[in-house]
Amino acid sequence: MNHAAERPYAEPEAAARKLVEIAAKIEAVQDGRIYIERINAQFMFELKGSGREFGAGLRYAIERGWLSKHESGTYVKLMPPGEDLLTRK
After folding, report:
1. Mean local confidence (pLDDT), 61-85
2. Region class of 9: left (phi > 0), else alpha (psi between -120 and 50), else beta
3. pTM (2 decimals)?
4. What's 12-77's CATH class?
């Protein structure tokens, strides 16, 4: 009998917090831009998150103002400095 493994990023808030944590560790390029594929690769391949979890987490982070996504979808920017949303509950 196979049991489904627990998905640590099934909740959008958990996925969003992990995405912000990943983004904070990546060195931004021109004007604070963080290429989305750098976040996506770590989330999906190293942490074994799913595409659905990535999308839900990204939407959640954008809705909360933690990240902003360029209209092209190629990069995101972190929230304004001075707010530490990673520790907020």
Report:
1. 84
2. alpha
3. 0.83
4. mainly alpha
